[in-house]
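pasting Metal-dependent transcriptional regulator for the record, 225 residues
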Amino acid sequence: MGDLIDTTEMYLKTIFEMEEDGVTPLRARIVERLDHSGPTVSQTVARMERDGLLHVLGDRRLELTEEGRKQAVEVVRKHRLAERLLIDVIGLDWACAHDEACRWEHVMSDKVEGRLLELLKDPTTDPYGNPIPGMGVEVGGQSAELAVRAHDDQIVRLVRIGEPIQAEHDIIADFAAAKIGPGVSIILRGEGDYVRIVRADQDASGIDSSFRIPLALAPHLVVEM
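structre below
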C-alpha cells in the first residue's frame, strides 16, 4: 500500500477535511489523524510550506495556499468519486470502501475522473453524504457533538459521516449493519465519553440498530434537526 500513497496529497486532504468538519488544522491533529510521529509531521509540513502549498500561521494553524487548496480539492474529489464507484457499482461494503478509495485517489488520472463523472451521472455527494468538491453543492447541519449537548435524546436526520469515522472499520460496519446512512432519522443519546446512536424507527424496522461512537468522533457526524 505504501508505494501508492502520496504523502503530500494525504496531508493536503487531511487539512481540507479538518476545515470541512470545523476542526482547526494543526500539526498535532495531523499526528493524531494519520498516526505519524511529531517530527515526521513537522518536517513534511515545513517542506510543503517551502513548496508553496500551505502557510503555518502565528497561532500554529495550517492554512492552505491557493495552489494547496487546488490540489486538495482534486484529491478529495477523486477519493469520493472512487467511493461512489466502489460502493454503488462494484458493491464493496462500507467498511472496505474508504481504505480502498485512499489508494485510488493518488493514482486516478484526470481522464478516468472525467469518465467516472459520466458513468456515475455527476454525483454531488459520496455514499456517506460528504459533498464532492467542484460539484457546486454545500452540505449544512451541525455536529452530533453539539446536537447531543443541546438536544439529548431528540430525533435528528443524519446528513453526513466524516472521513475519521469512515476510517474506523468497526464503527462504520455498525452504521452499515444498522442501515444508517445519509437521510435516515436517528436518536442521539449522550453516555459520558460516548454518543449512542439509535435508528428512530428501530421498533418498526426490526433491526438491532443501537451502537455507540466515542464523543471524540462526534464532531465528524453531521445531523439536522
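The domain at 7-67 is CATH 1.10.10.10 (Arc Repressor Mutant, subunit A).
Strands lie at 54-56, 62-64, 142-143, 155-161, 185-191, 194-199, 211-214, 221-224.
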